[in-house]
């Protein structure tokens, strides 16, 4: 083994140990930030109502609250949907209408991203949202069935409406199926 190869091996070894230390430091910072976010969400009035929705975690709620701010400043859920830029708009050019209705995307992109990434696990783990999405996907052709991204966009608006209603009425989320059985 030559001296050059030995020096390269030593340099690579020290670089790997430096990167491992850096990774551990970053993991420590992430844990500290997550603990802070949990504490801050617990301190908010809105947090406890939003966390009652199955599929939403502390990080998702923190992102939504950070972008939306105080829910008392909104008079309706439509304002929140418009703030996210997820409201459907008509798209027309030279008298030709598109078959699909796109989002306006005129609101806050970070809010839209936070809501979008919050809805994905909800569609997977929340039976109410999953059944709702299945119903939208399997509608007959005349009733405008929705595709994958369209369902996520519609679910995003549904999440914002639901969040507004829970906070405004100061109630926790209850599964509609349980309400029907007991009510």
How would you describe what is shown here?
This protein is mostly helical and 183 residues long. It is 68% helix and 2% strand. The protein has helices spanning 3-43, 45-51, 58-68, 77-84, 109-125, 127-137, 148-169, 176-182; strands spanning 92-93, 96-97. It is extended and about 70 Å long.
Strand content: under 5%
Mean pLDDT: 80
Looking at how many chains there are and whether they match, the oligomeric state comes to single chain
Distance between the termini: 81 Å
Give, in order, the helices and strands.
HHHHEEHHHH
Question: In a nutshell, what does this entry contain?
Answer:
The protein is mainly α.
Topology:
Blueprint: H1 3-43, H2 45-51, H3 58-68, H4 77-84, E1 92-93, E2 96-97, H5 109-125, H6 127-137, H7 148-169, H8 176-182
Antiparallel strand pairs: 1-2
Helix pairs in contact: 1-3, 2-3, 3-5, 4-7, 5-6, 5-7, 6-7
Task: From the structure above, extract its key features.
8 helices, two-stranded antiparallel ribbon, mainly alpha, 183 residues, 2 domains
């Amino acid at each position: 083994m030559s001296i050059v190869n030995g020096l390269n091996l030593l340099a690579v070894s020290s670089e790997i140990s430096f990167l491992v230390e850096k990774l551990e430091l970053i993991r420590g910072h992430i844990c500290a930030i997550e603990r802070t976010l949990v504490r801050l969400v617990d301190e908010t009035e809105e947090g406890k109502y939003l966390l009652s929705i199955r599929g939403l975690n502390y990080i998702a709620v923190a992102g939504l609250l950070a972008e939306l701010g105080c829910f008392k400043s909104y008079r309706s859920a439509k304002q929140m949907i418009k703030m996210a830029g997820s409201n459907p708009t008509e798209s027309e050019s030279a008298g030709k209408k598109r078959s699909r209705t796109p989002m306006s995307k005129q609101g806050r992109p970070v809010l839209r991203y936070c809501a979008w990434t919050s809805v994905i696990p909800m569609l997977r783990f929340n039976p109410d949202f999953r059944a709702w999405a299945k119903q939208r996907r399997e509608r007959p052709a005349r009733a405008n069935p929705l595709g994958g991204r369209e369902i996520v966009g519609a679910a995003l608006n549904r999440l914002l409406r639901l969040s507004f209603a829970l906070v405004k009425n100061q109630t926790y989320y209850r599964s509609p199926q349980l309400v029907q059985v007991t009510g």
